[in-house]
Amino acid sequence: MALALEDRLAVTELIALHGHLVDDGQLDRAHEVFTEDVVYDLSDFGQGELVGLAAWREAALALGAANPVAHHVTNVVVEEVDGDRVRVRSKGLGIKADGSCGSVTYEDVVVRVAAGWRIRRRKVVARRVPLNGVGRGA
User: Domain spans of the chain?
Assistant: First the structure.
C-alpha cells in the first residue's frame, strides 16, 4: 500500500520542524521531532553517534555559539519502507553567525509512533566537494 498523502505531508513537516526548534533554542521540544532513543550520527564531523535525546541536547549546548543561527531544509524525498517506517533524504543549509554557510545531506529513518511520525535515526553527511567528488580527475 502506498504511503498516504497525509503521511507524506506530516513527515515533510516533521523534517522542517527540526530547524525551527533548534534555531529557536527550543531543545526541550526535541521529542516532537525525534524518538527518545534517536541515533544522531555525526561521524562525518568526527563526533561519532549520539544516542538518545539527552545526548543530542548536551551536544547542541556544548557546541554553543558555534551552532548555526539558521537551519534550512529543502529537497525532501520520502521513500516508504513499510506502513510505519520511511526513509527520508533532504538537503540542509546551515548559516553561521558570521554569514558563512555549509551544506549537508540528512539521511533519516522516520517511524510512526503513538504521538505521530518521529526521526529514529539521522545521519548528517557534510557536502564538501562538488558532484560528490565525481570528475575531479586523478
Answer: 5-127
Q: What is the DSSP string of 48-66?
A: -EEESHHHHHHHHHHHGGG
C-alpha cell at position 22: 533548534
pLDDT in tens, 9-23: 999 999 999 999 999
What is each CA distance from 27 to 42, 46, 102, in whole angstroms? 18, 22, 21
- Length of the chain measured in residues: 138
CA distance 46 to 130: 21
Answer whether 0.85 is exceeded by the pTM.
yes
**What is the CATH architecture of 5-127?**
Roll (3.10)
Of residues 113, 117, 123, the one with CA closest to residue 40: 123
